[in-house]
């Protein structure tokens, strides 16, 4: 995979990870309720769930492109519509949303379990990855290139939420995020809508 194309992939994965939502709320809640270790545990287990969905998507896309091109195109359009809906929802979100999560007593084991369940219990991740990875996956893509895509999605997701958990160890971070939640939502929403349009136009070169 060319480096420029990988950079596009990494940027889109980062945008998806940073989008406020249930995953962010989960990490916030466990970090505030148990400290740094449960927050990191939730982040890492969530990344494993994301990696599993990315793996399933990558391995299935190549076969789908070859065997059912019309169905593949329909799924792509559905994924683009989903991304546009996410973007619109983010633009309409106020200052609250996931940034207002409160802490409850928790442990590393509980945090890890819930982190995995939040990722695997969100089938919309499949739609997100289909729309995203359709820009990068081709039928002739090597195993190494597919592994790179999966690792990129997993490492960026885990890295972002680990940074959130570590940052929340300092009491000034959460109020700073809460005060700027509406701007995070607006920027994310605009980027998601732009991505939806790009998906509708066809694969990246």
From TrEMBL:
The chain crosses the membrane at residues 52-85, 117-137, 143-163, 183-201. This is Lysine transporter LysE. GO terms for cellular component: plasma membrane. It is a multi-pass membrane protein. The lineage of its organism: Bacteria, Pseudomonadati, Pseudomonadota, Gammaproteobacteria, Oceanospirillales. It is found in: Cell membrane. PANTHER family: AMINO ACID EFFLUX PERMEASE RHTB FAMILY (PTHR30086:SF16), ARGININE EXPORTER PROTEIN ARGO (PTHR30086). GO terms for molecular function: amino acid transmembrane transporter activity. Keywords: Cell membrane, Membrane, Transmembrane, Transmembrane helix. It comes from the Bacteria. It comes from Halomonas urumqiensis.
């Amino acid at each position: 995979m060319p480096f420029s194309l990988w950079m596009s992939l990494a940027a889109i994965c980062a945008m998806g990870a940073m989008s406020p939502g249930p995953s962010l709320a989960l990490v916030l809640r466990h970090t505030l309720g148990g400290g740094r270790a449960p927050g990191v545990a939730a982040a890492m287990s969530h990344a494993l769930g994301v990696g599993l969905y990315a793996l399933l998507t990558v391995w299935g896309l190549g076969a789908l492109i070859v065997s059912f091109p019309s169905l593949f195109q329909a799924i792509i359009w559905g994924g683009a519509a989903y991304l546009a809906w996410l973007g619109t929802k983010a633009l309409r979100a106020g200052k609250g949303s996931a940034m207002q999560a409160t802490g409850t007593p928790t442990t590393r084991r509980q945090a890890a379990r819930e982190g995995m369940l939040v990722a695997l219990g969100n089938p919309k991740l499949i739609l997100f990855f289909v729309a995203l990875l359709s820009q990068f996956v081709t039928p002739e893509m090597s195993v190494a290139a597919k592994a790179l895509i999966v690792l990129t999605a997993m490492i960026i997701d885990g890295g972002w939420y680990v940074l959130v958990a570590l940052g929340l160890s300092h009491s000034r971070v959460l109020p700073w995020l809460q005060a700027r939640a509406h701007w995070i939502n607006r920027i994310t929403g605009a980027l998601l809508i732009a991505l939806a349009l790009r998906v509708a136009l066809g694969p990246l070169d």
